[in-house]
User: Fold these one by one.
Assistant:
Number 1:
Amino acid sequence: MDIIANYGTTLVLVAALFGFLMAWGIGANDVANAMGTSVGTKSLTIRQAIIIAMIFEFAGAYLAGGEVTATIRNGIIDSNAFADTPDLLVLGMIASLLAAGAWLILASYFGWPVSTTHSIIGAIVGFAVVSIGPEAVQWSKFGGIVGSWIITPAISGVIAYFMFISVQKLIFNTDDPLNNAKRYVPFYMFLTALVICLVTIKKGLTHVGLHLTDGEGILLSIAISIAVAFAGWLYIRGQQYNPQDDSKMHFANVEKVFGILMIITACAMAFAHGSNDVANAIGPLSAVASIVAAGGEIGGSSHIAWWILPLGGIGIVIGLATMGEKVMATVGTGITHLTPSRGFAAQLATAATVVIASGTGLPISTTQTLVGAVMGVGLARGIAALNLGVLRNIVVSWVITLPAGAILAIAIFYVLQTCFS
């Protein structure tokens, strides 16, 4: 308690610095792999991806991020165990931010798409075990996270597989692929818009003062999705298609139709990621700020101060702009060859899985969801379409993320204790 009383402002400033570093890592890794399929298929330039991420990450965090609060009581650790020693919780959260941020930046440097969710969870578990003991960890939830390594990629992979199979049957394996693309792509736009609308209305609109019943929410989602599909239909028919382009690249005009859809799914992916993963940076930071503000009292939830969300958003955008290219390359071109139609199937499957998981409370990694979806698209073309060497490296990086976060957090926690004692 003396540490909080004597160094409260310093602790918040240090936490803000490390929270910014964590957000930087999220931008370099998680947002980069979320945008990787769009950039890899050349549907978006890196600059366009940054702009989309900037807008929709903020929108997802604000509208669908759980009313912009981060609950610490019901997280991976039992905060009641720290009731008598809140200074340990504050130092541990600060150590976790630095540990997870450092691991994410290192992984991004090597082009490994790892999980920001699991990075911060591994870090929090590490400091909790050495500061209080194993009883401070809610191991049942931790087990669910390990199980999600298999469940999450499997769900998104299955959805992406059948999504791309439907594209093949309805469009590519027909006598007139271009006209069928014009006919069916607006329907896929409808599905994409519906995913975004449902998660927004389900999780976020009460925060901005709009209260709807489930039936009203579904009807509004359908109406907005129909409007998006109609606008897409008009846009597709207004485009010029040159038959000679197909002689240079097979199905070039069909992929051009899917190009606009990739932009919509990129927005959906950024929105879904913002609603799910931005809390990895701002959650621990808001916990530190609220505990210090309360003089060491640990509440059930920590309300995010006005300056924390912009700090996280700025860090994410800078991370994507400065270090995102390697992870984009791994996801967009390293696992399997992607075209706009294949990238669409992967991104829509990922966004849909994130929505499903958010609604059921499944601990989810956006990274693992997207990699699973890209694998599903590759498998739809046969196992030979996958780069198994890249996949092996990705899986290894997933496995070592939890212990890496824990070990780094333990070391940093002891250093912080020495500095502030």
Number 2:
Amino acid sequence: MKIVEIFKSIQGEGSNFGKQVIFIRLGNCNLKCSWCDTDWKKYKELTIQEIMEEISKYNCKNVIITGGEPTISNLTSLLKELKDKGYWIAIETNGTNNIGYEYIDYIATSPKFIYGSKIIKLKKANEVRIVVDTDNKIDFITFCINIRNKIKAKKYFLSPVEIDGEFKNLVLLGEIKQKLKERGAGEWEISMQLHKLMKIQ
């Protein structure tokens, strides 16, 4: 499999904030977001056995598979091996593909405004996190409403975009949150990438 990195840290955003996890970051992505914080083109090829040997070094039984975009890889063998070894498994995806893997315990998805809601294929997730990466408030609100109608989830989050260590659009994020509530689009919570503020990988 194409592996960018494997490391232990805490989940820095969303409902699982503070959870000790092992991140398995996969290479390649089917989108190209200008503010992406991962160089997913740089990866090494590892076998399933090599991946399992690497994560066994950590005293942790929680794994988050992220990217890049993990759903463009064949995850079946890795997921089965992880579940056979008793790992809790989460995946972070942009929502452009359906997820039919029976071994996944938690799905977090982050649809991208710049690509619109029409490319989203995912129908169900545990949480949705949308990055406010535009000044276009009206269109962004419409995008959030479309995503909420398209993806059934327990939690919906808005996040500020982070560029060069600085969080942008914080005021706009608050305005959008309020407007969504006024339009009957449900409750949206705020999720910051707190691991970046804490200087944690």
Number 3:
Amino acid sequence: MYDWITDHKIPVGRWIAAFITFLTDNFEWLFDAISLVLSVLINGTTAGLLWVPPIILMAIITVAAYLLHRSIWLAVFIFLGLLFIANLGYWERTLETLSLVIWATVVSVLIGVPIGIAAAHRPWLYQAMRPVLDLMQTLPTFVYLIPTLVLFGLGVVPGLISTVVFAVPAPIRLTHLGVSSVPTQLVEAGKAFGATNRQLLYKVELPYALPMIMAGVTQCIMLSLSMVVIASLVGADGLGVPVLRALNTVNVAMGFEAGIAIVILAIVLDRVFKRPETRRKGG
């Protein structure tokens, strides 16, 4: 009865496949260059972290967390959490995951914050982007994992790109929200003192929106961590690899140990980047 609908199928999939083929045929050199640069950055960061003895790196992270938060309990928790990860045998995998999360967050912030600022100053731009942002966050990650794999090949880079696609809407939305919520009185006061648009941005809007921007960074970190297992499907190293192996071999012990390591890393990063903001509000 409804065959006439399927007989006139809109070839969306073929259009997208043709577009991906066009990109690989004409811009393969660009994607190879991007893949090389990102691979060097991520692998270099991992090598640098692995070069430092584990106990010393744990101590450095713990001291840095204490200096940021002045909380001895948080410092003790971070040190014991990292020590527990090393005891489980996942220290190297954890540093690989940390490198991926760091660069995914950096790329997402470098892309998301400027776009969020532009969208805050141009409401029509945000209205145009909103469906795209919704699509990026609701589309199953396996769907855009396929074109990134075709464009960038097997390895950590397609995992990074897929993570960025999934995480970048957070800084865009929260930067837009922070900048657009700047009180009109502050902007008008800046203009009254003769501030240019650039001065208004750097001296009024961004300082006011900074807590919201930092919330976007924290969200970006958490979203990147949630992509660890997905990224391992295309060759990205890290804690997602033992989780994937445990799933394939029904190894309950390995799965739970790797999962606990991911949870500890997520809690550590969340406390380090989120707590200062809460404390300033409380003060």
